[in-house]
Batch of 2 targets.
Target 1
Amino acid sequence: MTDIPSPLMRGAAIRGRIDALAAISAQPDGLTRVFASPEQRRAASLVADWMRESGMTAREDAIGNVIGRYEATQDGAKALLLGSHLDSVRDAGRWDGPLGVVTAIACVDALRRARRRLPVAVEIVGFCDEEGTRFGATMLGSRALTGRFDPALLGLTDEAGISMAQAMREAGLDPDAIGQAARRPEAFAGYLELHIEQGPVLEREHLPVGCVTAIAGQTRLAVTFTGMAGHAGTVPMAGRHDALAAAAEAVLAIEAAAQAQPGVVGTVGRLEVLPGAVNVIPGRVRFTADLRAPQDESRARLVGAVRAAIGRIAAARGIAAEVAVTHEEPATPCAPALRRLIAAAIDEAGWPALRLPSGAGHDAMEVAAIMPVGMVFVRCRGGLSHHPGEHVSDEDAEAGARVLHRAITKFPELAA
Amino acid sequence: MTDIPSPLMRGAAIRGRIDALAAISAQPDGLTRVFASPEQRRAASLVADWMRESGMTAREDAIGNVIGRYEATQDGAKALLLGSHLDSVRDAGRWDGPLGVVTAIACVDALRRARRRLPVAVEIVGFCDEEGTRFGATMLGSRALTGRFDPALLGLTDEAGISMAQAMREAGLDPDAIGQAARRPEAFAGYLELHIEQGPVLEREHLPVGCVTAIAGQTRLAVTFTGMAGHAGTVPMAGRHDALAAAAEAVLAIEAAAQAQPGVVGTVGRLEVLPGAVNVIPGRVRFTADLRAPQDESRARLVGAVRAAIGRIAAARGIAAEVAVTHEEPATPCAPALRRLIAAAIDEAGWPALRLPSGAGHDAMEVAAIMPVGMVFVRCRGGLSHHPGEHVSDEDAEAGARVLHRAITKFPELAA
């Protein structure tokens, strides 16, 4: 490999640190690291050590985020925030989250080695919870940082019946102090998050990295079709009100509505048939629709098309339809200036700058509440994530680090 | 009501006996009467009493069928067999089965009152098991009568782990003697079964009775589509192999294939989605297809069309399809002469003789192995069956009895 600003940016070095973090797990044969667990605290402590080795000050905040700071040319300057999350799902992959923290530290290490200070400070955060594995509620770490953590969440309980407040105390954290983790928007100039794609697009395009345009907004629907159950042998086709046949039309209508707009996805992931006997015409079907789009207008069109199709199908079949919105989250556009910055960094590093939306949620969604955000995606094998087989090649990890380093060093020009 | 050959043929009288049988149940608040139960034996005993009151000899056979005989003008003549079953599903309706036995006895009572003997004897059977509620295997009573009872069935166990053989012994029946229940085909001239329709056709046509053309044959398929699971947000529509979208196409293709032929039905009653999470593209779907037709050629065309559609859908979506036949039963055509006899009886009773197939199975399917069979359908409210709300009006019950009586008295002309 050619000249590199820090050996920590090399693929093998990045992989070494990813593996070191993966070894800090609640399960012996795989990776599970959840909010307010001993593992999560140990991972934060290891990351703090790495930050200090690379010339940063490091601390944990009140909720357990680990935060390092590499000072600017002038003390107290606004900071460019980098980072991602250190927690995981159960039986997780090792790259989802930590890659953004490890590459960010490597980039700061490159600044330290060059004895270079920027007009902005660089802060790196390793968020203590993004996945929401333990308590269901996601992005606890970034919510605390933006000051939008709702104390009502402290009453949520995990599978063992332990409340979030109690879990924090057992982990040596003070739930009453979470407000102290909130940062002022004025303290930051922007946020850059490097993360694995968790999808197949970069692999299909044979590119190691890409520039995220927006984090998709999402609408989740719960749909119930109620028709008329009946004997599969004795009710002629003409008189049927088959709830599953109606749902089948809806599944295909949702697929078609999503296909009609670029970058939009629609999925029926759950579908339950009642009564569910081989010789009984389904009287009721419940299913979900997960609808996502990088622009809220696209999502509104998608949801409208799906609702219209459901109404049309139900009316044509003499079936009752109920549609409930169970979740709604607007899209988070990446800041145009940060998109240009990242695209230029990819371009200068020698690859075409593919722009793609993120269909999955990321800390950047929450951080966007208080500052402009940008994201770099790194290719992962087969698009596989949330699975022990999740994998990033050394070459791709290094490509991500190089792009991030370029974006960081060019950022002050942008902020100027 | 006008002149009637026996007061037992009146709707209210039929209802009275249906209610008396419904009171003989394993559950206090509803009707459950299964094979080799004390209730089943008591019901058979009550029916035997009614048979004797109407001038018949009556006995139980080795498996627990109750059989009455009204002798012909000459002793030992061939018999016209009438009847249906006395067992029920769990939490059953009261008309499914007993109506055919109660109306048959009323018709013989009319012969007795008229001091009339026919050139054929009339036998009535109350089968001890048609539903298969207790041991899964259906039509145990008629299988014993035709001599096609497979002794291997005696090893089947009920939910309590009691074998069929043991259950029979506990009920005072001898499993080793079942072969003695077999009747010689030469003993019979034909079989007429009156049964509720268990479907909505007669109600829709505003007719109390109908003439069954055939009992539909049936093919059951178990289909598995295996595509590729993935994140509902990160996998673009274009690269998906969504097993549920494929299954949705198959559900609609099955519906369309059934609609393409008159009298044919096709139903997907069970469908299971894996992994079944709101935000995961379904990687695998398992579903059943229940395909029925009154002619085996129609069913063969239907099954062929469904298999072809499944293959086409799977190929177009890059999905693997497995299709297994889990059940196959040929159609049982009603004997043309008996269809004409019943149609003429309906016509003479003053209604248009609607001919319709039976989508559900009946004892007549099994009895057809040793003699020609015919069936009279009686309207039931809303087509509802296998449910406590199952209902036949007094007028319709009486209409059924009148048609059956006419068919019985005209039968000797046919046999001559």
Target 2
Amino acid sequence: MRVAVLGAGAVGRSVAALAGEFGHEVVAVADSSGAALDDGGIDVEAVLAAKDETGTVGDADPADALEADYDALVEATPTTLGDAQPGFGHVERALERDRHAVLANKGPVAERYDELRALEADSAGEVRFEATVGGAIPAIATIEDREPEQVPAVRGVLNGTANFTLTRMAAEGLGYDHVLAEAQDLGVAEADPTFDVEGTDAALKCVILANLLAGGGFSLEDAEVEGISGIPGNALELAAEDGRTIRLIGEASRDGVRVGPRLVPENGTLAVSGTMNIVQIETRHGGRMNLSGRGAGGPETATAVLADLRRLSR
Amino acid sequence: MRVAVLGAGAVGRSVAALAGEFGHEVVAVADSSGAALDDGGIDVEAVLAAKDETGTVGDADPADALEADYDALVEATPTTLGDAQPGFGHVERALERDRHAVLANKGPVAERYDELRALEADSAGEVRFEATVGGAIPAIATIEDREPEQVPAVRGVLNGTANFTLTRMAAEGLGYDHVLAEAQDLGVAEADPTFDVEGTDAALKCVILANLLAGGGFSLEDAEVEGISGIPGNALELAAEDGRTIRLIGEASRDGVRVGPRLVPENGTLAVSGTMNIVQIETRHGGRMNLSGRGAGGPETATAVLADLRRLSR
């Protein structure tokens, strides 16, 4: 496929860098300040090196990337809430042009799902968004293949930063603030970790799952969200005495979305370690499926985008 | 889709019974001695009740089911080795007629993969076989979506009977013969459990995975197979003293197929309990994915067949 990549952060860069190996051609890459365009296929390595040197991928107008001759637009700009712009507008333009849109950006799928599907219905292009939930984990494709109507509920550990923090607190008996600082030093947590530790990121992913199950209707404001910053250190000790531990669990069903700290069995399926994610899919006739893997990271999340491209190219 | 179901064992029955709920129409069901046919859609409940009463699904010639007006043939007759007949012939006929073939029968995919793909290449129909590996677990679809060339190796626990036996031996400190007799009483193990406990079933699944990764070339005779019947009871005790346990692990890569008892961490990902299965997929850029779920059972395995039908109908 001919691919345009919007966003040159960790995921966008990895998609561009891996596209060739997966049989695709990159005809445009854009960041917020510039773009590189070539209908004959851009030299991805050179473009990413330019980004490292100059801060942008190229001299062209980023708006021109939207008009390039691509089969699929990869939307990998940062997630924004509310109107989910500019990501939503990018996807809208691709669909208007009857091209596919593959999102790594959670905003449009969590905040404006119904509008997204309406645009898709009027387009020859399709919308896919495997990369928005669980990084490398094939959660969306599995729910689609098993029919969303057959899935009463999905739950899981969907934020690596929060999970790393809880894992370290339990293993080392350290307090929240101490572990969070350590996670920031390691690059696992952002300088401003609110989005992750207060549950917003996990909630967005659960809203996306709820939209998939229910065929739309949910946005972040429908989610009941509690983060991990209020967990006292001794709560983990008390849990451990009882063979249990605490995880930030997100739950999605047709009835709504809830995210919060929950007690889970210490060696149980949901107690994944460190930055791992897990998605538990309940099915009416096939029992419970557990899908775990790397929930974040540029190349890992890029493989989910590339899986979407593969499905679109069939 | 219009579906013909060959084989009225646990899986075939469940596919027929669930097809309507998943939006399909069953136009034929056949077992080894009879068939029920109706181009307008058969009354599945009545046909399965007839099977319970009379031993067969209907009075028609089973061969006529192959010639029915279906979009997809579901091959759910018992797995046979070597020439994999009669399953292979059924799939061959569907493809000759430019219809899809969805297999729950492992024989043709493990023993005659290259021929199967050659027939598919000459047909407008496609071959799918999610149900042959890991019951409800989406192993095949995930490897396909992530590109087989991107997967260096797959390993896992792929036989519920063997896993149930090992789990009980470890938990209760009982010997192999005792636990196997118990498993037979519970219906978890067959009267002749050789196929399961000697590793043949797990090996067939790994051969299928190796064929998917390598694009063919493998059959059961290429597999190195060791079962669990030779494991002394105290081996599990010794393993437990070291925080480990024993699982029958199958491994598939382009280099070959191996199945045998292996030491694994007691609370580790591969140490699934009872009849659960797990498939671990190594990927070049996305890390390791773990997919676990119910590895057997009529409705569970039927959901994998129905997922294949869903993919074919897109």
